[in-house]
Structure formats: C-alpha cells, structure tokens
Amino acid sequence: MAAIDQGTGVSFGLTDEQRGLRALARAFAENEIRPHERDHDTHMRHPAEVIAKAHEIGLMNLHVPEEYGGPGLSAFDGMLIGEELYWGCSGMGTSITANGLGAGPVILYGSDEQKAAWLPPLLEAPILCSFGLSEPGAGSDVASMKTTAVADGGDYVINGSKTFITNAGYASWTVVFAKTDARAGAKGMSAFIVPMDARGVTIEQHLEKMGQRATDTSAFALEDVRVPAANRIGEEGDGFKIAMATLDFTRPGTAIGAVGVAQAAYEHSVAYAKERVTFEVPIAMHQGVNFMIADMATEIEAARLLCWQAAWMLDQGYGRKATLYSSFAKRFAADTAMKVATDAVQVFGGYGYIKEYPVEKLMRDAKLFQIYEGTSQIQRLVIAREIFTPKS
Ligand code: CAA
C-alpha cells in the first residue's frame, strides 16, 4: 500500500479564501439550485440557466489553469465547492462540474496548442464538454470498447457508439476514446477531441434516469466522423492511460458530491427527528432513530476526510500513487451516500417514501454514485490490485 510520505503538513483548518469559496458555493446552492431542484427532477430538465449562472460567478471549470483563463484551483479547493453544489442538488451539481471530467484529458495530457484552442472558450461562455468513454457493451471493461479510429491522410475517421455520457446531449465537444489498434487491448486505445456538431455525430437518446434527473445523460453515435490528427490527445495508444489518470483526478470530486448528498439527507433527518413525535416524545429520543443518525454523522465525516485526503494527494503530485486513495474515497463516499439516504427514508417512515418530502429524491440520486465514474465494485477491484500488485 502506498505510504503517505511526501508533501506539506496536513491541517484541517481552511484558509479565509477557502472558506470564502465554500460560502459562495453554499449560497449558490441555497438560492439558485435548491428552489429549482424538484422541477428539474420531475421534468428531467437540463439546467441550462443554472449552469449559466454558475459559470458567471466562476463556479465552473475550476481546474482550468490560469494561463488558459481559468481559476486554476487545486483539487482540494474543488472539493469545497463540489460538496455544496451537490448538497443543493446532485443532478445540477453533476451538470455544473462535469466539464472537469470532459476537459480533464486536455488539461492533463493536451498539448499547448490543444489547451489554447479548447480550454479558453469554456471560460468565455457556459459551454459544455463531455467524456466519451462508455459504450453499450463496454462500461466497467473499458478495454473491450468497439469504437474505432482509423488514420486517413491527416485525419482520423471514427465509428462507434457511446452511452451514459454526462452532458453529451448539450456538449460542444467530447473527448472520444476509440481503438486505433483493435488487437492491442488497453494499449490500442487513443483519445480524440470531437466537436459534437461534426458531420456523423448523432445524439440518439437523452436517457431517462432514476435519479440525478437534472443532469443530461446521453447516448450518441459516430458514423464516419472525421477529425484532424491534431485533435488526438497524446500519442496513439495513450488513450487508456489518459482515461484512467483523468478518472483518478475526478473520482474524489465525484465522491465529495456523494458526501454533499449524504449531508443533505442527514440534515433533513436531524430536523425531522426533532419535530416528529411518537410515543409522546420526538423520535430523536428513540435509540432506534438516534443511533441511525449517529452512524450517518460518523460515516459522513469519514467519507469527507477520505475525499480531502485523496484531493490533497493529487495536489501534492502523488500521481499514480493517488489511484488507491482516489478509489478509497469514491468507494466509501458512494456507499455512504446510499446508506445514509436509505436510512434517511427510514427516519421519515412513510413520509420518506412520498415525493413531497425531500429524502425520496436523495435516495434515488445517491444510487448513481455507486455506478458512474466506476462502480463501487470497480473501486474495490482497483483497491485490491493496488494492494496486491501496486504500481509505483
Ligand atoms: N493511471 C495510469 N495508468 C493506469 C491506471 C491509472 N490509474 N490504471 C491502469 N493503468 C495502466 C496499467 O498500468 C496498465 O499498463 P501496463 O500494462 O503498462 O502496466 C494498463 O493501464 C492496463 O491496466 P489494467 O490491466 O489494470 O486494465 P484493465 O483492462 O484490467 O482495467 C479497470 C482496469 C480498473 C477495470 C478499468 O477498466 C476501469 O477503471 N474501469 C471502470 C471505468 C469507469 O470508471 N467508467 C466510468 C466512465 S466515466 C463516467 O461514468 C462519467 C459519465 O460521464 C457518466
């Protein structure tokens, strides 16, 4: 197991600037997200206007470096903002933060020319980008993807299908992963920046989801889509590594979103437990209820600290060694959110199962954290591999 053996000392105190970022995001979540969450959830409405406002006050594209017009925030600072946005509504939180995943490959592995071409426009207007990895037949098993990219003159011609892609239905461009050598497994994959208005790109479906319904999740087809070789990120064959390293960077950010959902479910539970009376006392007085809430509080705190630690390691330049901690955070926070939200429904009893009360949505929303950006089982697989066959 990777030892934490480098970097600056650890402090749990936040700077004034960090507290300011968190307060800004909390105010945004309270004023701009929460009032609209039910409507977007019910109607599965893409929150374009909320995205535009988040963009206007600088809550998007947090990790785009300053030299390309972004705020260049650390992974840790991103945690503080992310938790609040997802506390507001995880569907909208995902919509607002998903450019981090979409642009991740460009930020981490793009050439100077690619960064200069594709990153500044994200800061100039509230445009979206997405991460085109999953396919109908290849989700957890990334290397089995079928999409191909064939070199042709100075271009590549891409054919295939992508699905479960956050924001793809409204994205300006997507980093599409495709096989450039079908026989080379993980080493035969490459990454390409594909404008979504390119000829041959068709949005096939805005998928109707159980939860996080405010965020768009789309399926699209690529039919003889031609992109210049200049749109390939890294070398041919680098695609798998680019995808994995991007996910190492973004999984803690998704994990903190799960913490935001769990925190919301916990707060609703505490308030309800103080108010609701059974057997002549508030239900908070019953051990059957207050033990559930005690566990919620403990596990949320533990999940938050794992997220902070993973982000801190990324910021300290641990690189590949952060993989383990990134998966610790994602696995634990996702499973915690699901447990806390399920217990919150239990605290509310019959009312918890009714849409009029807030925890029913939180339980549906929480489930997605155990699936997207690598299921909880894939996180365990990564953790086990890092334990038994660690990479330096
Ligand atoms: N960083 C850099 N390189 C890595 C890496 C990492 N984190 N992980 C693996 N690699 C390298 C390995 O070292 C190996 O290279 P060598 O042979 O040179 O050593 C190569 O990549 C292949 O690695 P594996 O043999 O481990 O690959 P695998 O086929 O067994 O798969 C896996 C590993 C962990 C299961 C991977 O496929 C995986 O993470 N699957 C889950 C995918 C996922 O998270 N999908 C979510 C999509 S995004 C999303 O959900 C967002 C959305 O928009 C909805």
Question: Which helices and strands, and how do they pair?
Answer:
Elements: H1 16-33, H2 37-43, H3 48-56, H4 75-88, H5 90-97, H6 99-109, H7 112-118, H8 120-124, E1 128-132, E2 148-152, E3 155-166, E4 171-179, E5 189-195, E6 201-206, E7 217-228, E8 232-233, H9 239-275, E9 277-278, E10 281-282, H10 287-315, H11 322-348, H12 359-369, H13 376-388
Parallel strand pairs: 1-4
Antiparallel strand pairs: 2-3, 3-7, 4-5, 5-8, 6-7, 9-10
The structure holds acetoacetyl-coenzyme A.
Compute the gyration radius: what is it?
21 Å
Q: Biggest sheet, strands in spatial order?
A: 1-4-5-8
Ligand identities: acetoacetyl-coenzyme A
CATH architecture of the largest domain: Up-down Bundle
**Low-confidence segments:** none
H-E string: HHHHHHHHEEEEEEEEHEEHHHH
How many structural domains are formed by the residues?
3
Distance between the termini: 10 Å
**Count of strand segments:** 10
Structural class: alpha+beta
Shape: globular
Percent of sequence in beta strands: 15-25%
State the share of residues found in helices, binned by percent. Answer: 40-55%
* CATH class category label of the largest domain: Mainly Alpha
What is the CATH H-level superfamily of the largest domain? Butyryl-CoA Dehydrogenase, subunit A, domain 3
What's the overall average pLDDT, rounded?
Answer: 96
Count, helices: 13
**Largest sheet properties:** 4 strands, mixed
User: Under CATH, the topology of the largest domain is which?
Assistant: Butyryl-CoA Dehydrogenase, subunit A, domain 3
